[in-house]
Design a protein that fits this description.
With 303 residues, this protein is α+β, with helices and mostly antiparallel strands. 33% of the residues lie in helices and 32% in strands.
Length: 303
Amino acid sequence: MAPPGDGQRKPPGQLLAEPGLSPEHLREIDKLASTCLATDGGRLKLERRTLQTRPSEQVNDFLWFGPGGLVGFLGLYGFRSDQLEICGMVHPAHRRQGVFSRLFEAAIAEMGNRGAPQALLVVDRLYAAGAAFARSVGGELEHSEHRMVLRRQPAAFVPDPLVKVRQAERGDVAFVVACLGEAFGLPVEQLKTDQIEALVEHFPGTLVIERSDELVGTVRVERSDDAADIYGFAVSPQFQGHGIGRQVLSGLSRDLVAEGLTRVGLEVSCTNDSALGLYLSCGFDVTGTEDYFAVSPRQASGP
């Protein structure tokens, strides 16, 4: 989330909140993001691929149009059933006018309509004003994640010929969901069949890891232009400590670079020392940190 620096007065312009995003809206969002990043640095976790595939029956995106076009954007991201993520931005020339506050209020109202109990505001640690806004609406720091980028050759290792990676199939969904739930503490038992099906459609880049034809882990790769990001990397606890994670991550990274991709990235919890050590040994370096502030609709809307 870029630093909003909002005041309390109503800003000039108007809010647009409709299901889905048009190609023109996506171009406007890209242009606004480029302007904000050129001014602020860091990263805006806008999940471009997700924005391209928004459901047509649900409002997830809130756009503020001023006299010169799009000056503010905020997106809701439903990566898990009990918790949404929020990320947004305001044009540097239109900050401290209340734009982000209006976008945030609209998003919180939508959360209330859905009965969503909590959201996480994603704030790059470079943006002190973003953290200040999160705390001003009752947000409390829940966790932080380093973002990492492949920059070096991985350390040498002896590969296990019994380990293979393949595209996930529909029959693998139950394992993938259980593996992710175990690894990241996700409340997968609350997922309904239609939600699981939606996960399958939403994340087509999901892979499964096998050893001797037994499912032992999962990972997801999302490509965008000349870059790729690695998500949901998990190995079942009983198979950890045998070099499977190192072999899979190193192999994936090598293959992605061979495809001609110029950036390969991933994220890791700041408190997950074992995963951080693995990623460092596989050639990834920390390039920044994002803080996740938990806020409930009731807190954010006041008494």
